[in-house]
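Researcher: Please generate the 3D structure of the following complex. Treat every line as part of one assembly.
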Amino acid sequence: MSDSATTQRSAAGAIVTEDDVIRVEDLRLNFYTALGVVRALNGVTFNIPRGKVLGVVGESGCGKSQTGLAIMQLTPAAGRYEAGQVLFRESSEQPAVNLLQYERNSAEMREIRGNNISMIFQEPMTSLNPCYTVGAQIEEAILLHQTKDKAEAQQRAVEILRKVGMPNPERIAVSYPHQLSGGMRQRAMIAMVLSCNPTLLIADEPTTALDVTTEAQILDLMRELQREIGTSIMFITHNLGVVAQMCDEVAVMYLGRIVERATVEDIFYDPKHPYTIMLLRSIPRLGVNRAMRLESIQGSVPDPYSQVTGCPFHERCPSAMPGICDTIMPEEIIVAGSQTHTVRCHLYT
Amino acid sequence: MLNFVLRRVVNMMVLLVVVSFVGFWIIQLPPGSILDVQMQRLRAQGGNLPESQIEALRQRYGVDDPFLVQYWKWISRSLQGDFGTSFQTDQSVAERIFNRLGISIGLSLTALLFTWLVSIPIGVYSATHRYTWPDYVITLAQFFGLSIPGFLLALVLLIVASQLWDQPIGGLFSTQFADAPWSIAKVVDFIQHIWIAVIVLAVGATAGLTRVMRANLLDVLNMQYIQTARAKGLTEAVVIWKHAVRNAIHPLVMSLGTLLPALVVGEALIAIILSMPTIGPLYLDALRSQDMYLAGTILVMLSALLLIGNLLADLLLAWVDPRVRLD
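Model: Done. Output below.
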């Protein structure tokens, strides 16, 4: 794999490559609820180079799932996109298209969903409809985007089930979801999303609900299929171990912003943002003195209805500089000596 | 599945025997008997009754027989299709019931159909347009529908229909059509007579089921597989009607089992107000006059309807949801 060829900076100041599958720029998403406005995404900017796996990590509620949903415009009805662009480029030959220009349920958006961009969800137990057979649910996507021929769709569904390593795919195709185990269901989900050879796959914590053995199998499978089909993946997770295993690049999110973005090596060996450093310290490791307590990040994510001035992490940050961090919002800057490593922190300006 | 149905049918038979026994016993529990009722009536008409006549009636009705003998007389003949004779009118029970049963079941099924055809689309609309003004209007209408007693609604509709719209009311047909052969005019006349009954019968269940449909659909719409369906690129209509409604409809299917007999009996009061010749008023009358064979037969028949309704509901549910299928 060649390293993401040449990096440059976009108008918004973000790192981009020549051939990004998706480029999200300054995406802002608010939820208008009875209790007030929740600012879910406050200017999210990132790119996914073609054929790469980008890991998006962060605590619960940091907006990582909402970022994934926003790309497909599957945000819950109470959400409104306030600003920003989602630039999608189906292939290197085609120009980028801003997906947010389309209406949520427009024909254009529906043509992209499931066909060019697919999504896997966290809960394999509930992400398949209990009333229809696994095969029928896979065929549904194929019939919608690929062919109108029912027999062919049926055949393709069995093929793709075989491809994701299902034993006896003919039988699985006529089984109902409740007859399969969690790992099998997630395999079936992967089969469904890959059935139309998507350009981008958004995987929202696809292994969180599975046991470790099954998790390893599913991750292997995804890695393998990604190499084979060349799909780019946005891998949303809170598990840094999984990130190390799966991803080429990592974006760390905190409170609706990307606070650090680097290659997977840089994130693990040279983390810059205090939040990233603390996230890494909270992973248990082998060979470390057992009596030593795992570090946890003090405090919790601020109330989503409130607005924090300055750096959103300053209240929990051990290196916060009074007078600066609590008043001025840090800009995204490139770490000195690197081409691809960016961070949003006053310590590095 | 066939095995399951066969087992259920055998169970139903056993249950019906138990129900008939207990039912017959309960019907006899109140003091007095058909004899007292008849004697009272005859006395009111023509003074004293000679002892010999009372004795003759006693013999005929078998009121002094032990309970088990009475039960056996009734049930053994019932199994051969002879449900006995009504004490009140000397007509055969079968004749008295089956005249009305068709009307009752027809009315109930029409009301059921009405309930489903109205409550499913409105429930779906209400759920998909939650917290908009049409949803509030529907919710308000539901509360009215649930809280207005059927008999009151029947009376109000009767007055409105007869006074304002000049519609024929009461009974099944206008006098000129009562004995006429079936024709389009007669059908129109029939519909004009029964629409009030259908609405009154259906309104409570419709309001309730709309509410259930709305609540269930809202739950289902939060499920992950709905998100999956949307992420596939399906239109919202397919997501709702193919993926969501099928998962939200369970309680409606299950309610079918209890709705059938409830509608057949539930119309008693309304049928009396609208003077409809249905089972309800007949049942009430049979109980009041301790017309045991008649009351017992109606009771067993209603139980059979309940059991059949439940079996149908179970089969329908198995068709809707593969998780409850027994293979």
